[in-house]
Please model this.
Amino acid sequence: MDSPTQKDKFDSLRRLMVQRQLRERGIRDERLLEAMERVPRHEFVDRSKWDEAYSDHPVPIGSGQTVSQPFIVAEMLRLAELKPMDVVLEVGAGSGYEAAILAEMVSQIYTVERHSDLAATAREILSRLGYSNVMVVTGDGSLGLPEFAPFDAIIVAAAAPRIPEPLFKQLKEGGRLVIPIGAPEMQILEVVRKTDGDPVVTPYERCSFVPLIGAGF
Model:
């Protein structure tokens, strides 16, 4: 538990993060900004990293993974065009930070993490913080979760060489897949919308993610 002094400190750092790293860089989705101001990002990193939790960069969480930079989290969720009744699949749960923000914004989240230790950490943190609309699954995220499909949106927090066909198949008609595509040294954040059953791809900006590893290619 945070002490009252720590809570005030982290609340202040979170408001500053939202103002300087998100609003001042053009993020205008108020539901998203409010969600990111509510979610205690420091809870999703090791206590030794708490001083970095609200900084403008990724933070290591073990197993070679990170909690992504706040701006890139916000940008991906903005591009997903989330609605309150959406059912969303996240690929790459990490320690659960992005899933917590999603849980504040939509009705149900399914999130897949291939590292069992991180999946266990995410379950513990999300449960402790009271997020009951998130299911954390240990497995191969490139294959999605067909038993819970179709999804209104799928958000992939790892870079794929191309669009994983299993994930595209699990989108609803009109659904949005937000995914970094490209080689390790050069990736583009793309939005893939299912339109009349076909992918319509819109590229956005350069980004840098760990690779998506799995059998879905």
Observations:
- The longest strand covers residues 171-183.
